[in-house]
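hey so i finally got around to running the thing on that chain from the lab meeting. sorry it took forever, my laptop kept dying and i had to restart like 3 times. anyway pasting the input first so we r on the same page abt which one it is
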Amino acid sequence: MVTGSPKVRIREPRREGQQIVVRISEDSLPLDHPARLLWEVFGRLDLSAFTAQAKAVQGARGGSLKSRRMLLTLWAYALTQGVVSARAIERRLRDNDHAFRWIAGDQHVSHTLLSEFLSDHREAMEALFTNVLGALQGQGLIFLPDHRAAQDGTRVRANAGKGSFRTSDGLQDALEQAELHLKAVMARMDDPAPTEAQQQARERGAMEVLDRVKRATKVVRKLQDKRSDCRNKKRQTTEPKASTTDPDARIMKVSNGGFEPAYNVQLAAMGSPMGGPVTVIGVQVTSLGSDKHSILPMCEQVERRTGLELSEVLVDGEHLTHEELLAAIAQGRTVIAPIPERWDKSEAPQAPAIRRWISEMKTEPMRRTYRARKALIERVNAILKDRFALRQVPVRGLHKVLCVFLLAAVVLNLMQHGQSLLT
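ok and heres what got predicted. didnt touch it at all, straight out
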């Protein structure tokens, strides 16, 4: 070091009182980015159903609502990225993921708000799904002459474990434990004492547990009544169980051949067998492990949403019952499906309409038409389960699961047709 030389100025990093500021501009996302596409399309749709019960109105007290368009776009874009958790979306925002941060702008969005928005707006989600189908109809994108409608049921893993399923005796024990726990929480015996917010959270949690156990007890009673009237002797002697985590879930046979807590998600899709966009036109969620008796309710739902008659539908053999098929034929509908082996080989007398249907399904034109089913509905199932990561639902309860799949259907339709809706 040279004596007497001037001291070099060096700026050392400061770590106290500093903050990182991320600047997001409107044009920082490409024009064809999925987040921008979803934002633009939601901006053109009627979202008034999401604010129908809002109290934050002009002239009244209270803070403003967070943008419904923003919350919808966050959830919709998250699904396209395989993100199905409200906490995961909050983490993306906190970590300044560019696309998520672009959607939210300067807004702070908590996982609690995201969860409540997704699960507490069933009627609004129904209206949104219907509005999207109406927009697609207006553009002439569905119900085209070469389009076919196909229906299928897929089992989706519930947000509950097998160990949460209990018999009537087990539920009685759980009920007593839940009541004791609630009394202990209400007694405020903790040392040190919790804050008022912590106490309220504990009380809500204890009451929710008690409510779920009571609901599970009612489910078991209903299942017992139903099984007592069942002709199957094995089912009569099997003691029913219900989940204390999600009373609406049921143990079902899933795609891997095992039995898991699940929901039965029925989907109807429409498109051309030759390729091109596929559109979800109907969504049903049930706690039934069987696909039977679901064809006519789906047809009626589609007609209610679109105003157009669904006169032909492709289903697999697991959907068929004599009663429903006869009712469909009486309504002038054509149900195209493989002939159940038990029907074809049955020596019992069958209704003339069933015999005619069996003869018709054996013809080559009907067999060729049925081959389109897998190309349509299996594409939808693959997108929902693989791309949207909906092999397991992130919520509990039949109505909340329905909300998730209504939104997923909306997102799938927008990703298939979004650019056409913007032109």
